[in-house]
Design brief:
With about 220 residues, the chain is of the alpha/beta class. The chain has a domain of about 140 residues: 3-Layer(aba) Sandwich (Rossmann fold). The chain is built from nine helices and ten strands. It has a six-stranded parallel sheet with strand order 1-10-7-4-2-3, with helices on both faces. Strand 5 and strand 6 form a beta hairpin. The longest helix is centred in the C-terminal third of the chain and has 19 residues. It is globular. The structure holds iron/sulfur cluster (SF4). The site of iron/sulfur cluster has 15 residues, from helix 7, helix 8 and helix 9.
């Protein structure tokens, strides 16, 4: 385990997150499933990490009441599922960045994932690979603008500046440290910003840090 990962684990614990360490993807999947009781209602955030861990097929296996955001017949049904997810027993997601001083940083477009992280689901399981760990919140902001958002914008075909250039417009404008500075694209995926520091309700948010590269 590298020093950054150790620092993050200790600091997250101090900030009253329920913290777990997984050596690899398989262990991360096992830990995540152990935190979800059979019969629980589950919703997920859009996440390459969750895809890579194969968790969606686990959630669809009939043991849970999965609010499947990827299975919808109309835009109305899709929106209804996003709303239902906010009262799920368990919400599973990743984080855009985890700092060595114990902060989770997430940027969202629609807002359902950061809303669930803030309040609603009884339990939130956050899974993040070691590639998401950065020293400070300032580095977390830069990570989103230079790594997470550009790759997500490409994955989602958003047609934004970062999807084409590989970094946020604010980098070229010299104001990347300004959290909310960015493009004016209708497809902009950076609209809501969540900084999770010391928790008022201890252990509601479970964080599984994985000693492997996962998602972006
Ligand atoms: S503000 Fe726009 S250009 Fe900047 S990272 Fe977000 S989507 Fe990309």
């Amino acid at each position: 385990m590298n020093e950054a990962l150790t620092n993050a684990l200790v600091a997250l614990k101090k900030n009253r997150f329920d913290v777990y360490f997984a050596e690899n993807k398989e262990e991360a999947r096992e830990i995540a499933l152990s935190l979800i009781p059979e019969g629980a209602s589950i919703a997920v955030g859009g996440s390459a990490t969750i895809d890579q861990l194969g968790l969606l097929s686990e959630f669809r296996n009939g043991k849970y009441r999965f609010i499947d955001r990827y299975d919808f017949a109309s835009q109305e049904e899709r929106e209804e599922k996003f709303r239902l997810g906010l009262t799920a027993d368990v919400f599973v997601m990743s984080s855009n960045a985890v700092t060595e001083d114990g902060i989770l940083y997430n940027v969202d477009g629609r807002g359902n994932s950061v809303a669930a992280l803030d309040y609603g689901p009884k339990s939130v399981v956050v899974i993040a690979g070691r590639n998401k760990i950065v020293p400070t919140l300032k580095d977390a902001v830069l990570r989103v603008k230079t790594v997470a958002a550009p790759l997500n914008a490409r994955r989602l075909n958003c047609g934004t500046y970062c999807a084409e250039k590989g970094h946020c417009l604010s980098v070229d404008q010299g104001c990347a440290e300004n959290m909310t500075a960015g493009c004016g694209s209708r497809g902009r995926i950076c609209s809501r910003y969540s900084v999770q520091a010391m928790q008022f309700v201890p252990d509601r948010i479970k964080v599984i840090l994985v000693d492997d590269e996962l998602g972006f």
